[in-house]
Amino acid sequence: MQVIHAKQALTTNGWQSDLEVTIGADGRIEHVGPVSQQPTHRTALLLPAPLNLHSHAFQRAMAGLTEAKSPDPRDSFWSWRRLMYTFLNQLTPDDVEAIAGLVFMEMLEAGYGAVAEFHYLHHDVSGVPYASLAEMSERIVAASGQAGIGLTLLPVLYQFGGCDLRALNGGQRRFGNDPEQFLRLHAGAAAAIAGGPADNAIGMAPHSLRAVDPAGLSAILSQAPSGPIHMHLAEQVAEVDEVQAHLGARPTDWLLANHPVDARWCLIHCTQMTEAETIALAQTGAVAGLCPITESSLGDGIFNGTSYLGGGGMIGFGSDSNIHIALFDELKTLEYSQRLRDRSRAALAKSDRSTGRVLYDAATKGGAQAGGRDSGRIAAGALADLVGLDDDNEWLCNRKGDAMLDSLIFGGRGQGCIRDVWSAGRHVVAEGRHFRREAIIERYKKTMNRLETDF
Ligand code: ZN
Q: What is the pTM assigned to this prediction?
C-alpha cells in the first residue's frame, strides 16, 4: 500500500491541510483522512490528475516542422493538414509505438493521469490493412503500457474525403474503413484493451461530419451501447460551410437534431458555434473537448467559454496535435482567449472559485467523464490519478488554496513544480522524471533520425 502525506490537497470536500491519502493494490484511493501512519511519499500539494481528453500521438513528431511559410500564399489549417498527411505517410507501426511512448511519457510528466487517444492511423502507406486489422491500435496500447498511462482508446471511423463523399486519397488512405470493417477493427482494439491494465477503457470516434456520412454514423453508434463517443465538431469555418451545404444545417445544429447527444459524448473543438448552438450543447451534458494550444497553433478560432460555462456546460482539455504538452498552459490559453476577445479579466472565475480553480475543476471532472474513467477526484473509491507538486520555490512561496492553483496556471512555472504523478496508483513520475525516461527517449530519437523531416 502507498501512503501519501500532503500539506495541502484539493479534495471533493475542497482544500484540506495535512491530509493522508492511501492507495490500494487495485490502483484506487482507499482512504482519505487525517495523517495517521508513516508515509511512503510526502508532497506539498496533491491534486487529482486530469485525463487528457484528445490526442493524436503521432503528430508530436511534427512539432516545429510546420511553422515556415508554405508555397500556399494563405497558410491555414488546410495547408498544415497537407503537410501532416505527407509526414504520416512514412510511419511504420514501430515508429508509431516509439512516438506514442514519448508522448505518453511527456503527458505524465506534465501532470496528466490518463489519455483518450483519438486514433485514426490504421493501415499501411497504401491503405491496405495490416495482417492484424487492429495492428496500430495494438501499438498504441503497447506504448501506453510502456509509459504506464491510463488509456481510453478511441478507434476512429474515417470514410470519406469530404461531405461530398469523395474517396480518400494520398495520406488519408491510411485512415479509411467502411463501417463494417471498422467494427471488426474496433473489436480487435477492444481485445487489445482487455489484455491491458483494468483501468484502460475503449470508446468510439466517428471522425467528423466531413469524414463520416449520416448512415455510417448511425451504423457504428448502433453497435456501441455504452462507452465514450468522441467526434471533431465545428473546428473551422470552411468545415461549417461544407456541412451546411451538404447536410442543410451547421454541424452542431445538425448533430443535436439527429442524435441524442448526452453525457457519453465529447465534441472536440466547437470553436465555430453560434450563441444558440453554444447554449444548446451546454444543456446536453456532453463535454466540449477543448485543445486551446492546438487551436491557437492551427488558427481555429476561440471557443465561447463564457457563454458555454454560463449555460452550465462541461468542458475538458486535450493536447490534440501535441505541439506543446503542458496541462497548465492549456488552461491558461483558454482563459486568455476569452480575455483577449472580450477585453476582460478573470473571465471564467465564479463568485466562490478563482479562475484557476474553475479551470482545474473542469479539467478533472470533464476529463474523467469524457474518458469514461472513474477518476478526477481525491475521494475514496476513485482511481488514484494524482499529481504531487513541490512548493519549495519562489513561484509558490506563501501561496494557499485557489491562489496556489492560479499561480501554477498563470505564473508560467507550474510544470516545473510537478514532482510525482500516479496513474491508477502506478507511480510513474518521481522527482519530476518518468521512470522509463531514458529508454523511451532513446527509442524515439532512433525513430526520428530515420524519418524524413524536411518537407
Ligand atoms: Zn483532433
A: 0.97
Distance separating alpha carbons of residues 142 and 413, to the nearest angstrom: 32
Query: Domains in the chain and their CATH numbers?
Result: 2-47+379-440 (2.30.40.10), 50-371 (3.20.20.140)
Instruction: Name the residue with cell 506563501.
Output: 398
CA 86 to ligand 1 centroid distance, Å:
17
pLDDT tens track for 422-450:
999 999 999 999 999 999 999 999 999 99
Answer yes or no: are the C-beta atoms of 405 and 9 closer than 8 Å: no
Tell me how far CA of residue 58 lies from CA of 228, 301, 422, in angstroms.
22, 23, 24
Say how many Å lie between the CA of residue 401 and the centre of ligand 1.
Answer: 33
Q: What's residue 82's pLDDT?
A: 82
Q: For 192-218, give one letter per residue: b (16+ CB within 10 A) or e.
A: bbeebbebbbbbbbbbbbbbbbeebbe
CA 88 to chain centre: 20
Distance separating alpha carbons of residues 342 and 223, to the nearest angstrom = 43
Residue 72 has what pLDDT?
73
Grid cell 482494439 is found at: 189
Can 352 be counted among the known catalytic residues?
no
* Residue 143 near residue 104, CB atoms below 8 Å: yes
User: pLDDT > 70: what percent of the chain?
Assistant: 100
On the 0-12 / 13-18 / 19+ scale of CB atoms within 10 A, 166 is exposed
* CA distance linking residue 294 with residue 82, whole number of Å: 16
The C-alpha atoms of residue 93 and residue 95 are separated, in whole angstroms, by 5
146/154 Cα distance (integer angstroms):
19
8-state DSSP, 252: H
User: Cβ(27)–Cβ(1) under 8 Å?
Assistant: no
Tell me, yes or no, if 392 is annotated catalytic. no
Check 5, 119, 207, 269 and give the catalytic one: 269
